[in-house]
Amino acid sequence: MMFAEDDRPSPKNGHEIGCDLSLLSADELDVRIALLKQEIERLEADKVTKTSSRAAAESFFR
Prior knowledge:
Layout: H1 26-60
């Protein structure tokens, strides 16, 4: 089956939790660590937004 250039699966960028790390270099591990730290920051920022929204809603309905 021939794929058009746009139909090809994109390469997996990122990190899968629990994947085998034995074939990764130290530089590749650094890249993944940086990626995961960015994701943690994004998650924490979203959590702050959601908890502040909830607190505002709770104070409104008291």
